[in-house]
Every structure is written in C-alpha cells, then in structure tokens.
Write a structure and sequence with these properties.
Shape: globular
Distance between the termini: 25 Å
Helix content: over 70%
Strand content: under 5%
Number of helices: 15
Radius of gyration: 22 Å
Largest sheet: none
Number of domains: 2
Structural class: mainly alpha
C-alpha cells in the first residue's frame, strides 16, 4: 500500500501525463523537420524563429499588462536564449544528414549531462531508486537500437550519418545546459518572465543568424502549401512545448523531463503504425513498456533520512499519547 501511494500521487500523475504530452510534441516537431529535410529545405534557425516570436508576443504581452518587477537579471535570459537557439539549430540541422530515429535516440545523451549539471549546480541528490529508474529508461531506448526497424531506418536515412550523429550529440549537450538553466530560473524567478525574455532574445538571435546563414536558402524556397504547413506545424508544436516545459521542470525537475522525452521515438512508431500502416518490430513495444516502468520508478517519492527519523519519532510520540511532543515534531517537520 505504501508503494502504491508513493506511485499514484497527484504530482506523479501530472508529471507522467505532462511528460508524455511533451514527448508527443517532440515527435511532431521531429516529423515536420524530417518532412522539410525531405523537401530539400535547409533552414533550421528559420524553423525556430516563429516559435520565439510567439513566445515574445504572448508572454511579453502578459508582462507588459501586469508590469511585474524582474526577478532575475536580463543577461541570464540572454545567455539562455543563445544556448537554446544554437541547440535547436544543431538538432534540426542534423535531420539534413541522419535519420529521424537516430536524432531521437542520440538525444538521450542529454540525460547524463542533466544529471551531472543538476548534481553540481542545483545540488540535486539522486538516490538508488532514481538511478534505477534512469537505467531502466535507457535500457528501453537501447532495445530500440537492436530492432530491425531501427536498423532499416538508419540505413535508409541521411547523407552523412556520422556527421549528423555528432551534431545531435552537440545539440543534446546544449539542450542539457538549457534545461538545467530553465529549471533554476523557473524555480527562482517567474515562468512568464522566463518565457517572454527567452522569446524576445531568442527571436533577436535567430533573426541575426538567419540574416547571416539562411537568407539565400529562404529566397530559393518555393513557398507552396506543402512548404508552409510544416513550418507552421513546427512553430505551433514548439510554442506549446516551450509553454509547458517550465511546469514540468518546476514540479518534477529537468531529469524527469528528459527521461519523459525518451518515449518520443516510440510515439513516432505508433504514429507510423496508425497513419502509414507500417509493420514494426515487437521490440519497440517492449522498449516502450520498459521506459514507462523506468519513468514510474523514477517518479516514486523517496523519503530522506530526516523525514524517516521524524516519522519514526512521531509514531513513538503518538503511541505514548504525548501532545506536546507531537506538536514539537510537527514544527520540526515543517522546518525540514
């Protein structure tokens, strides 16, 4: 009963559900990016530009209306925006060289980076149960690597898989820095402030990068409905993704966020099954189930030693009928 209560808490359910919705959004951005790459459109920064504009307009408008005092220095958001823009640039760029599945799998490199960064800078402690959940999640992803579907996908996709994989790893590292920074800011500043400044500085940096790197590419694109639709779909999915990420970061942390995204590859397979009627290897389903189990284990709450000691003393005081002792323990628990 104790274990069930630890799993099915409100925080856990929200974290798992929101994490999977974000994973679906990542899958949709992957499909739109892959579709643009197949059409020969190579404009990774331009794809993200509209998302930053939407963030700046929507959340910036809220800030202008409320006029709150800033809770963090503006240059923190500038540095965050720079890292975030380049992370998006690198990962979207990788679709020009490697396959959709490779990008999604190699994105898991962000997980050990996040664990290391949160441990160093946010002083996050990962006990045995958390580490076990992480390992099980990664095992689920490794299963996909050995499936026949994945092997065929890698063989068929990309003009330079090695180059594309290295670009993904670089982008995943920057994503880890961005996620941990966002977790710190959303817990110590304000979500609306974070989104508005990230959108504002992200749009400026993206516009400069587009003018330098992608102006010629944009002029050469034949802007038909087939080209516009993936751009808009990518922007809308990214806007929803960016809007919801801070909620998960604040409640469950950046490690849980990155673990949730591991299922994006599995969701891509589900979409292929129902939308394109493709047959997939059974190992995909086992991988999805394994990753889901790892997420649940990671989400389970672990009591630290102080909480356990307080609970044991509280039980002893309750058994002895000491009202004053119980009150003191309650005060101690509140302070902890």
């Amino acid at each position: 009963m104790v274990e069930i209560k630890e799993i099915w808490t409100k925080k856990t359910l929200i974290g798992l559900g929101l994490g999977q919705f974000l994973s679906l959004l990542v899958t949709s951005t992957g499909f739109t990016s892959s579709e643009l790459a197949r059409k020969g459109i190579n404009a990774p920064t331009s794809q993200s530009f509209l998302n930053y504009v939407l963030l700046a307009v929507v959340y910036g408008g809220v800030m202008l209306y409320q006029r709150p005092a800033l809770k963090a220095k503006w240059y923190y958001y500038l540095l965050l925006a720079l890292v975030d823009v380049e992370a998006n640039f690198l990962v979207v760029k990788a679709y020009q060289y490697t396959s959709l599945t490779s990008v999604m799998l190699l994105d898991c490199w962000a997980i050990p980076c996040v664990l290391l960064l949160t441990w160093i800078f946010l002083k996050t402690k990962y006990r045995f149960k958390k580490i076990t959940g992480v390992v099980i999640c990664i095992i689920g992803v490794v299963m996909v690597v050995f499936s026949d579907v994945h092997a065929n996908d890698r063989a068929a996709g990309g003009s330079n898989p090695v180059k594309g994989d290295l670009i993904v790893i670089a982008g995943a590292t920057l994503y880890a820095v961005s996620n941990v920074s966002e977790e710190f800011l959303v817990k110590n500043a304000d979500r609306t402030e974070l989104m508005s400044f990230l959108g504002f500085f992200g749009a400026i940096i993206s516009a400069i990068q587009i003018a330098i790197l992608e102006r010629g590419e944009l002029k050469s694109i034949q802007w038909s409905a087939g080209a516009i639709a993936p751009f808009l779909g990518f922007a809308i999915a990214m806007f929803l993704f960016y809007s919801l990420v801070p909620i998960l970061l604040k409640t469950n942390g950046s490690a849980m966020f990155n673990l949730s995204l591991l299922t994006s590859d599995m969701w891509a397979v589900v979409i292929r099954i129902f939308a394109y009627h493709e047959k997939v290897d059974w190992l995909y389903f086992l991988a999805f189930a394994t990753t889901a189990v790892g997420l649940v284990i990671y989400s389970m709450r672990e009591k630290d030693r102080k909480e356990q000691d307080s609970a044991e003393v509280a039980d002893e005081e309750e058994a002895g009928g000491s009202l004053g002792g119980g009150r003191a323990i309650a005060e101690t628990s509140t302070k902890v």
